[in-house]
Structure formats: C-alpha cells, structure tokens
Design goal:
mainly alpha
Length: about 170
C-alpha cells in the first residue's frame, strides 16, 4: 500500500511518532513515490516547508522496516536508490502533478508549461518542473542504470531554468 501524498500537511506527531494522515490517494504499489517524497524532501502542493530531518528520517526508517516485514525480497540499498530514482522520474513526466487535484485530467499540462505558467501553492508549474528535473538527477546520481537519463535531465533542467530565469536548488538530505 502506498499513501500517495506524503507532505507536511499529512503528517502528525502522536506519542512521539510520525503518523501519516489523509489516505484518499492511497493505492496498491511499491511505495517508492512515498519514500522518494521523504528522501528527497519533495515539496508538494502547499507543503513547501519540508518535514524536519528527524521526522523524515523516522518515516524513512519505518517504511524500510515495514518493507522488510512484508516484501518477498529485501530492500537493498541499491534497490532503494533505484526505486527512489524511478519515482522521481515519474514526477517529471506526470502532468497531473503540476496542478491541484480539482484541475487534473484537463489536457496536456506538461506541454502547456512551454507557453504559459501558473501558480499552485508556493511555486509555479515551471518552478515545479525545474525542481523535479533536479530531484530526479539528484536521486539518479548513484544509480548506474540512470546515468544517461540523468545527464539528459540535467541538461534539460539547466536549459529550462535559463530560459525561464528560474534559480535551481537541491533538496536537503534526510
């Protein structure tokens, strides 16, 4: 089971433990998107202030421990890095991730960023796209199978950031 929307607004601390709330986007899956959101401190809709390092580390540790209990194969460090990279790449190409849920399924949002920009929360769609390209490159840095796509992604990120005059940043490590 995967949560699908791990962000600050969906985490509370209860009895000294971080607990995920709001499971409306939950689905069956490997959970790498959730884990990537924690590892890369991905700023979602209005949750730009990332979870603090201690809370993120606790959630990552609990996820990995849970995976060990239920998964047929162990989650090796290599598999973890590859899964996070895959999930970060999915963020880059997911057009619905550029608009609030109420506006989803209304066309080619990813292509629309070439002609127009819109604000959602604390970032614009173009800022989100440039950030996602950087997050994927960061996640793919230690995954040999992603070397080629990572290089291409970095070039695209740099070109779009220059063209749209967006400052690039990287996320904090957990």
């Amino acid at each position: 089971m995967t949560h699908g929307d791990v962000c600050l607004d969906n985490v509370i601390i209860a009895d000294g433990r971080a607990v995920l709330l709001d499971w409306e986007t939950a689905r069956i899956g490997d959970g790498m998107g959730d884990l990537a959101a924690l590892v890369l401190a991905f700023p979602t809709c209005k949750c730009t202030p990332a979870l603090d390092r201690v809370t993120r580390r606790e959630l990552v540790t609990r996820y990995v421990e849970s995976h060990r209990r239920w998964a047929p194969q162990p989650l090796t460090p290599e598999a973890l890095r590859a899964g996070v990279a895959r999930a970060a790449l999915a963020w880059v190409v997911d057009p619905d991730a550029l608009v609030p849920q109420a506006q989803r399924a209304h066309g080619a949002r990813l292509a629309a960023t070439l002609d127009t920009d819109w604000t959602w929360g604390a970032r614009t769609a173009r800022q989100r796209l440039v950030l996602r390209l950087g997050l994927y490159a960061e996640a793919a840095a230690s995954v040999p199978a992603h070397a080629g796509p990572r290089e291409l992604t970095l070039k695209l990120q740099q070109a779009l950031a220059r063209h749209w005059e967006i400052k690039t940043t990287s996320s904090p490590a957990p």
